[in-house]
Amino acid sequence: MRAQFVLSEIGVGLRRNLTMTFAVIVSVALSLALFGGALLMREQVSTMKDFWYDKVNVSIYLCNKNDAETDEQCSKGAVTAEQREQIKSDLQDMAIVEKVHHESADEAYKHYREQYSDTAIATVITPDQMQESFRVKLKDPEKYKVVATAFAGRDGVQSIQDQRGILENLFNMMRGMNVAALFIMGLMLVIALMLIVNTVRVSAFSRRRETGIMRLVGASSFYIQMPFIMEAAFAGLLGGLVACVMLLVGRYFLIDGGLALSEKMPLVNFIGWDAVIAVLPLVLVIGLLMPSMAAFIALRKYLKV
């Protein structure tokens, strides 16, 4: 096969179907950008879960004298010193527990005032209204139910809270956004494939005379089909490159510049450039292979030899 002939045919095909080729590039770019964005979103959720789950605690709130009057769980009265020490000892004896920290009512009051000093309720809250608690760091955050089962209903324990639950709504929202991005990506992918198939059909029809002559002189199917497949692959590769640029610009705009989320949300562990760069080769490979396969399948019907 002469490379010069194939390249010339690719140029002819792209010029004849410039508008449809541009539409293919745009569709492929959008679908692959959404695909890459969905992968990065999943990586972000995983990174945030690893980061936050490693820091959250299980909180065991103890009864105070106010709870004894209003909470059925604390009907036997406020936690005693003996009950407190027994709870602490039992926690430290558990193999899944890494660290136990006791927060007194005064410490809880101080932390509350630091966090909510601007609210009206902060001016009327008193230390005796705050609950003392044990903040339990687990070796495996997934083992929360072991602690909950062991201490729920025990005398002196008002409630047990897994702080992971506070984060679940955020993670669920991000998972929902990820699913939505994948759905839109699938829709754009179907549109891109339809455009590729139609572009190949139009290109094959416009060059039916040339392909007919090539059949008569004994050219192989592969030789005839190669320019069309290369056209689709070239358009897909351009779309993949555009998608890569969109992902790089999007990451920079959202995290480093523009919105600057890394500065506005310093407690969030955002994905780095290495995660984005790791996705780019996959985007390019899909951008190259997807149109090529679509063109090959379409040509089997329209360029039979």
TrEMBL record:
Sequence ranges assigned to domain ABC3 transporter permease C-terminal in this UniProt record: 183-303
Transmembrane segments: 20-41, 179-200, 237-255, 275-299
Keyword Isomerase: no
Domain FtsX extracellular intervals: 56-160
Keywords, comma-separated and alphabetical: Cell cycle, Cell division, Cell membrane, Membrane, Transmembrane, Transmembrane helix
Membrane topology: Multi-pass membrane protein
Location of the protein in the cell: Cell membrane
Parts forming coiled coils: none
GO biological process: one example: cell division
Principal location listed in the UniProt entry: membrane
Gene Ontology CC annotations of this record: plasma membrane
Keyword Ribosomal protein set for record: no
Known partners and oligomeric status: Forms a membrane-associated complex with FtsE.
Family, as annotated: Belongs to the ABC-4 integral membrane protein family. FtsX subfamily.
Biological role stated in the UniProt entry: Part of the ABC transporter FtsEX involved in cellular division.
Protein name per the record: Cell division protein FtsX
